[in-house]
Amino acid sequence: MAEIRLTKVAQGQTKIRNVPIAVTPEGFWCCPSPVVFQKTLKAQNPLNKPKPSSSPPSAPTKTTVQKKQVPMTEKKPTSTPSRPSVVPDDHRTFASDAPSLGTLVNERAPRPKIENLPRKVAIEFGEPGTSDMKVVLMGKQGFYVKLSVHKNVLMENSSFFADKLSEEQSRLSCLEIEDCEDIEIYVETVGLMYCKETKQRLIKQSVSRVLRILKVAELLGFKSCMQSCLEYLEAVPWVGEEEEEKVVSSILRLQVEGIGVTPVLKRVSSEVGNHPKETLFHIVEQVLNSSEERGRREMKSIVLKLLRENSSIPSYAGSADIFNETIYSSCRSSLDSLLSMFRQAAEPGFTDKPMENREPVLKQITLEADNLSWLLEILADRQAADAFAVMWSAQQELATLHTKLPIVSRHQVSCITARLFVGIGRGELLPSKDTRQLLLQTWLQPLINDYSWLQHGCRSFDRKVVEEGIGRTILTLPLEDQQSILLSWLGSFLKAGDNCPNLQRAFEVWWRRTFIRPYVEPRGSPMQSDS
Fold first, then answer.
1. Is-contact 218 257, C-beta < 8 A?
2. Using an 8 Å Cβ cutoff, are 398 and 357 in contact?
3. Helix-strand-coil percent breakdown of the chain, rounded to 5?
4. Contact, 314 vs 280, CB < 8 A?
5. CA angle, 157 as apex, 233 and 190 as ends, to 5°?
6. What are phi and psi of 84, to 5 degrees?
7. Which of 138, 156, 397, 434 is 20 to 30 Å from 265 at the Cα level?
């Protein structure tokens, strides 16, 4: 059992005494367990009449929470929903106003109307002998909680109660709050008015429960409780995206002046004016330059996933051009490094050097090719890869050097070419006709040369997808260019078979366009119709 100090009114001064308070299974110091509320509500059937007790039980000495099934004799007030109605004592009779909370009283009342069914006392708090007023919290289905409280405590802590218990209503001894959506949290919040260290009482509570307390504290004008809730939310971790959104939305809805919400919101917003271009460039460069393979691979996957979740650039960055410029800057840097490594690896005598001299160059080629593939994937997701296709199609020197390197060192470069063809085939990027034509002229043959290795040595390589992308890219060109490229492919396919891309579907489309149903008659030799 936990205890709370309540005040007893005597000659204008308060006398502090200990009053036992029920402890819930969750360990909260004041409010009954949610299970208690639910079981009490379910146990009360409006059709069942309470049986009168022949001899009332003795009052308990160490509990202030009692379950009761006592009909109310008064009618339901007709005040506005969600607003408290003030009811004087002489106009309202409760079934358990006796000093002992354990005493059951069965009072017969005139048969109520159907619309004014009797309410049932479910739980009571406090000791009537030490309190000077009662607060009745009305819930749903006639369920209510009665609190024996002290005016001075409520008025000192709550602007809502201070307004209701002003001097002109100083004789008021009963206050009713109707349509409480969260009656359990109302009880907790009123109990917190008796605590000096509210923040300590919130420790080990869930974030969702503290948000409920914050909402009720705002309704009651309990500013010190609100401040304690905000301090709790500023310090406690928020687990999951859903919980974070609940916290932020609840904080943004607060309308009470003098309550500092900025410390909580600093977790999700920054006041420092860092330029987003610099931040993005720093993140990308750190990932690209990492020398630890596993960490680099995992961070590439994470960054790509996050960018896919929100493909549009955040509003604070101003425009997507800032982000794309950062990515292209990294692309140019990686491409320059890749070309430099290719030049070294293609030098005469490079293969005769010791392995310790060749290995750094070959590793750097693999790293830069992988970096370019990652950057291309980012740009394709953002529908901004057209300029990459232009840049890649212009790398004639790199394509020439490609044939001079062992396939094991160069094959990842062909993965970049394959991804561009797939993107064009899917409509993810729309380079010009000249760019598409130059891309095929420069990089299709190197891709065919590496095709066997890509199929067996690259896990992420999808042959059907790549072949479809190559074929669709070819079919976007003028018919004479389609013919030139597909006839060149035919010679390679007849020699290599499965070690060459299978472009038969594209070949069939070109054939039909050329021989079966030409859409435009050839110039100078109009087709004769059979008549």
1. no
2. no
3. 55, 10, 35
4. no
5. 70
6. -70, 145
7. 156
Tokens at 237, concatenated: 């971790």
Sheet holding 84-86, edge to edge: 84-86, 174-177, 133-138, 143-149, 120-125
> Which pLDDT tens digit goes with each residue over 288-305?
988 888 999 999 999 888
Q: How far from 188 is each of 21, 83, 133, 147, 194, CA to CA, in Å?
A: 11, 19, 18, 11, 10
pLDDT tens digit sequence for 321-339: 777 888 999 999 999 999 9
Residue 370 pLDDT grade (very low, low, confident, very high; cuts 50, 70, 90)? very high
Q: pLDDT digit string (tens) for 466-509?
A: 999 999 999 999 999 999 999 999 999 999 888 899 999 999 99
Interacting residues of 114 by C-beta distance below 8 A, sequence separation 6+: none
Closest CA to 107 of 83, 134, 73: 73
Tokens of 325: 């410029």
**SS3 per residue for 392-439:** HHCCHHHHHHHCCCCHHHHHHHHHHHHHHHHHHHHCCCCCCHHHHHHH
**pLDDT recorded at residue 521:** 62
Q: Residue 314, Cβ neighbours under 10 Å: how many?
A: 9
- Comparing 226-230, 487-491, 527-531, the range with the smallest average pLDDT is 527-531
Q: Pull the structure tokens for residue 96.
A: 């358990």
Nearest CA to 382 out of 324, 432, 297, 333 is that of: 324
Chain mean position to CA 400? 48
What is the spatial distance between Cα 337 and Cα 365, in angstroms, rounded to a whole number? Answer: 8
At residue 254, the 3 state secondary structure works out as coil
pLDDT band (50, 70, 90) for residue 146? confident
Alpha helices in 255-354 (DSSP H): 262-265, 276-288, 293-309, 320-345
Question: To which H or E segment does residue 3 belong?
Answer: strand 2-10
Cα–Cα distance measured from residue 266 to residue 257, given in angstroms and rounded to the nearest whole number = 19
**Residues 170, 164: Cα–Cα separation, whole Å:** 9
Could you tell me whether strands 84-86 and 174-177 are parallel, antiparallel, or unpaired per DSSP bridges? antiparallel
Q: Is residue 50 helix, strand or coil?
A: coil
Give pLDDT tens digits for 30-88.
444 444 445 554 554 444 444 444 443 333 333 333 333 333 333 333 333 344 444 44
- 8 Å CB contact between 338 and 393: no
Query: What distance lies between CA 133 and its chain's CA centroid?
Result: 45
